[in-house]
Design a protein that fits this description.
single chain, alpha/beta, 10-stranded mixed sheet, 4-stranded mixed sheet, 27 helices, globular, binds NADPH dihydro-nicotinamide-adenine-dinucleotide phosphate, binds 2-oxoglutaric acid, binds magnesium ion, NADP, glyoxylate bypass, magnesium
Length: 740
């Protein structure tokens, strides 16, 4: 007999949070019939800020630390978490959150940009924990299995999304550093024993500063690498000159959100090199008024507001003058004049490069039209795969969603493997000297000569996650009868360590009849692309960053968006996390809801994740009803796709809420029709009838609210009651659901 089981469903940010207000009541009502409870756990950016300062807030403003709760839960073999995409906050997003909360009377301290006192340092440290990719590494206590389910793939084949044509004469390309970057300086070791190493800076006078003590466990891989600030700035200048001479648009693609320490620094250099004339002329003034180029040009516009109007106009003119001397800069919003360099969180490489490739290799220009572009990604380790993809499209034309195969991914990410764990071991050098990794006996394990401004970082990957990742790769190859490729370079220091382990751990498995290969990145992507255009599937088994990049790149080509991916994290301790999609939180969708009360967010990722989550409870707890709920949910999802009841982009047509209604209709019909459990069928038959009888009325009620502003007030700190009102406007539907 089963006892009550719990699914922890996360409340996050932006579009997925809005969708939750409509969808969770449906999931909750259905799940109840299988003795399953869905508990909402708030891990939104606002909730994380509130939790960080809970001890300073009055009791009525405090809230449970949802992230800590779920983080602890990941150790429990019973854990069952449905994780929606959340904001990985850049500084401008954090400022906006603090402002919004303080307007509600929270009285949170301002973020100290240049902390001087101990108090300010402490405040900054608390905010630092909230910034960037602060949720995923805590919850992802397992490796990742991301794929396009068969129903989704078949829908995409029948209803292909638009794909920009590729021309052989396209001048678009990826540009990256040919030296002085992390790739060219990487060193890597594997420790045989548990030990604590020190990350030390040795000054020119011989003084030693311990930056960090790092406990390592036996079998762990530790890398260290350096990016030269001078070479980075020269690289930016050269790419700008080259783009200007060749009349091609310049476009920066980094991941300042996830690589929260290193990439804002890189982004800041791009801003100060691009607008060099402005920063040279007004640098001192900018320092005085607190401009932070790492927050983008937006920071200049923001901070100069404290200056007299004439001065502001002078600076704005100087910015405009820069555009005469520089190549055209890619735009995020050409109507509003927002460029790629405006804020660091607008262009995020995992999604932005596939969007460019899908769009014939073009980015948007000042004139609102698409143009060929030089995509600048300083760090060469992974940038090369985009050049390879661009070459492939130039030769073979755009991918065709109707005929193309699929590239699922098995990604290494457990226990903060690879780049996810690097935030606390990434340092900007304040002086020239040597950065080194030293063991307890004083032996130097790795070292780099560094200069002021360089970015030096160490990166950890534990052994247990690697072993589990190899197993997951082999398992997926076996279960789906698909070739699997481990993407590992032959001459990259980190990958040399990993290759040894992969070769060793592959021996633990029966590989009979499987096609398992190890290939360098460019060969691996070419191999996968050669197969994909012939309709063949290839599993990519990769490290963490390639996991991130490939699970947007291929889904965006295959399905139009990575939101439609099934994204499972089998946790090392036995629990499961089911992520919804592989993409972001679609801020643009919120704007549309605010303006026209239409939410175009597609909850397909949520439907898929919850079905797997039910299924898992069914298996673990021998809960037959949960298994039926899962099976019927999957069938209903397929029917929803077939009947084209996914959200449209246009106000007045079916949106997120309408698609949820159809899910409830089809799901209840499937449950009523199944014969495995007569009790369940009897329970859902009246609902199915009521929903079907009232279909037109409900659809009308849901459409009637659209076309005018929704009245949503909070952005980062949404009022759940208000959101529920906006997201559940059909009384007929709500009443029907309440009968369950
Ligand atoms: N796992 C996680 O928690 C992740 C979080 N993020 C966070 O998300 C934010 C935005 O990231 P960004 O990379 O710009 O991605 P977006 O969320 O803006 O997604 C890019 C585009 O993809 C389309 N899209 C994405 N999801 C859906 C969906 N469910 N339904 C329909 N269309 C969809 C939208 O296209 P259109 O506008 O044309 O409709 C959207 O504008 C950032 O704060 C980032 O930190 C990013 C990646 C993963
Ligand atoms: O954690 C993040 O900031 C982004 C995560 C992401 O893009 C992914 O997992 O695909
Ligand atoms: Mg991603």
């Amino acid at each position: 007999m089963s006892t009550k089981q719990t699914i922890y469903y996360t409340f996050t940010d932006e579009a997925p949070a809005l969708a939750t207000a409509s969808l969770l009541p449906i999931f909750g009502a259905f799940a109840k019939e299988a003795d399953i409870e869905l508990k909402l756990t708030d891990i939104s950016l606002a909730s994380r800020v509130i939790s960080a300062f809970a001890d300073r807030l009055p009791a009525d403003k405090q809230a449970e630390d949802g992230l800590k709760f779920l983080g602890d839960l990941t150790a429990d073999p019973e854990a069952n978490i449905v994780k929606l995409p959340n904001i990985s906050a850049s500084l401008p997003q954090l400022y906006a959150t603090i402002k919004e909360l303080n307007a509600e009377g929270y009285g949170l301290p301002e973020y100290p940009e240049n902390p001087q006192t101990d108090e300010e340092k402490e405040v900054q440290a608390r905010y630092a924990k909230v910034l960037g990719s602060a949720v995923n590494p805590v919850l992802r206590q397992g490796n990742s299995d991301r794929r396009a389910p068969a129903a989704v793939k078949s829908y995409a084949r029948k209803h292909p999304h638009s794909m920009g044509k590729w021309s052989k004469t396209s001048t678009s390309h990826a540009d990256y550093m040919r030296g002085g970057d992390f790739f060219s300086s990487e060193q890597s070791i594997t420790t045989d024993v548990d030990q604590t190493v020190r990350l030390e800076f040795v000054g020119q006078d011989g003084s030693v500063e311990v930056k960090k003590s790092l406990p390592l466990v036996a079998g762990e891989v530790l890398d260290s690498m350096n990016m030269s600030c001078k070479k980075l700035r020269v690289f930016f200048e050269e790419t700008l000159q080259d783009a200007k001479e060749n009349n091609i648009m310049w476009s920066l693609h980094v991941k300042a959100t996830m690589m929260k320490v290193s990439h804002p620094i890189v982004f800041g250099h791009a801003v100060t090199v691009f607008y060099k004339d402005v920063f040279e002329k007004y640098g001192e003034l900018f320092n005085e008024i607190g401009v932070n180029p790492r927050n983008g040009l937006g920071s200049v516009y923001d901070k100069i507001q404290s200056l007299p109007e004439a001065k502001q106009a002078e600076i704005k003119q100087a910015i405009q003058d820069v555009y005469n001397t520089r190549p055209e800069l890619a735009m995020v919003d050409s109507d509003k004049g927002i460029t790629n360099l405006h804020v660091p969180s607008d262009v995020i490489v995992d999604a932005s490069m596939p969007a460019m490739i899908r769009n014939s290799g073009k980015m948007w220009g000042r004139d609102g039209k698409a143009h060929d572009a030089k995509a600048v990604m300083p760090e060469s380790t992974y940038a090369r795969i985009y050049q390879e993809t661009i070459n492939f499209c130039k030769t073979n034309g755009a991918f065709d969603p109707v005929t193309m195969g699929t590239v699922p991914n098995v990604g290494l990410m457990a226990q903060k493997a690879e780049e996810y764990g690097s935030h606390d071991k990434t340092f900007e050098m304040t002086d020239d000297g040597v950065m080194r990794v030293v063991d307890a006996n004083g032996n130097v394990l790795m070292q780099h000569n560094v200069e002021k401004g360089d970015i030096w970082r160490a990166c950890q990957t534990k052994d247990a996650p690697i072993r589990d990742w190899v197993k997951l790769g082999v398992t997926r190859a076996r279960q789906s009868n698909t070739p699997a490729v481990f993407w590992l370079e032959e001459d990259r220091a980190h990958d040399i360590q990993l290759r040894k382990k992969v070769e060793l751990y592959l021996k633990d498995h029966d590989l009979e009849g499987l096609d398992i290969r190890i290939m360098p990145y460019n060969e691996a992507i070419r191999f996968s692309m050669e197969r994909i255009i012939r309709g063949k599937d290839t599993i990519s088994v990769t490290g963490n960053v390639l996991r991130d990049y490939l699970t947007d790149l291929f889904p965006i080509m295959e399905l139009g968006t990575s939101a439609k991916m099934l994204s499972i994290v089998p946790m090392l301790n036995g629990g499961g996390m089911y992520e919804t999609g592989a993409g972001g939180s679609a801020p643009k969708h919120v704007q549309q809801l605010v303006n026209e009360n239409h939410l175009r967010w597609d909850s397909l990722g949520e439907f898929l994740a919850v079905a797997v989550s039910f299924e898992e409870l069914g298996i673990k707890h021998n809960n037959a009803k949960a298994k039926i709920l899962a099976k019927c949910l999957d069938t209903a999802t397929g029917k929803l796709l077939d009947n084209n009841k996914s959200p449209s982009r246009k106000a007045g047509e079916i949106d997120n809420r309408g698609s949820h209604f159809y899910l409830a209709l089809y799901w209840s019909q499937e449950l009523a029709a199944q014969t495995e459990d007569a009790g369940l069928a009897a329970k859902f038959a009246p609902l199915a009838k009521q929903l079907a009888d009232n279909e037109d009325k409900i659809v009308e009620e849901l459409a009637a609210v659209q076309g005018k502003p929704s009245g949503l007030s909070g952005y980062y700190h949404m009022d759940l009651k208000e959101v529920a009102k906006i997201m559940r406007p059909s009384t007929t539907f709500n009443d029907a659901l309440a009968t369950l």
